[in-house]
Amino acid sequence: MDSVAHHSDQLTAIALVTMAALLCGLALMRLRQPAVVGYIIAGIVLGPTGFKLVENTDTVQLLAELGVIMLLFLIGMELNIRSFKSVMRTALSAALLQIAVAFGAFWLVGHFLDWSMGRITVFAFATAISSTAVSIKILEETEDLRTPVGRTTVSVLVAQDLAVIPMLLIIGAMGATATGADEGSAGMDIAIKLGISIGLLVLVSYVLGRKERISLPLSNWIVSRSGIIPLAAMAFCFTWATLSGAMGLSTAYGAFLAGLIIGNSNVRASLHTAAEPILAILLMVFFLSIGLLIDIDYIIENWTQVLMVLGIVTVLKTTVNVAILHWLGEPWQRAFHSGVVMSQIGEFSFIIVAAGLAAKAISPDGYRLLIAVIALSLLISPMW
What is the pTM of this model? Predict the structure, then answer.
């Protein structure tokens, strides 16, 4: 009986979470804001510092991680190798410069505040990344997604998402060193993993770029059976994610490669259509989990520090984005538009911060500060 009551309580909690997310999402869309902002608000309201209706977040966190994997899968599907080649130089250069500037800024701050290199690295990596989901929603709202502004912005966002993989490897190596592993062997391990990940990406991109569309095994059979298409999309995504994880690389990296292959194949349209509803649900869970992580009490107690960091990061990030894009040859108007759209801190930054905490590169207080700043950055982004 206790087991039945426990499952009943869980189902009630899921129903409340789903309804709250739907209502908050609809309310924000009514105000011409991205629905993901509403999902974060729903998480805050229902979470440990809100009405405490959702206290056990383990299941939510698992689904949120699946949401991240599916997001990278869909990003890979959206990326046409031939089209990306035309903006690749700008995209990769912009992403690398954004990361370098963030690292330089936090190194300067850390020098005066006596921060460790691990803390500097995590703060720089976390704030350099912009939100793919929120930026694309903003571009859709302003009807700029298919314009030159949209193409430039999305290409830079994809380059940033790719950079998350080596970032996680670097932070993981810091964790290995912190637990007593030999620094030289940890460095060699990360070099090998980076080499494998870059080599695989280059190889896959080269093969896909040689043909207009590749034909996948059993593709015609799968497409002719509509009921199995969503399962085929998820199976392909999670198989590559599992293989990537087994190799010691990020599961998100494997999901991106899977999406890249599907996106340049003869079944892209069918699998993309099938994967979108699944992604929408998992992304809702992901942003809801962000709301659950936000510590309102911490923000109230440290509101001056949180708002100061949020303001500095938002203004500096916007300025740096615009300056870099214009320096790389974009007209001022286009550079300004793209720079403002990418002014927020991204969803993958939560994963970077969690990895930093696990590696003991940042303290629990540093973790709470970054979580608060990232979440508030996403909340104010559409208004900014």
Answer: 0.78
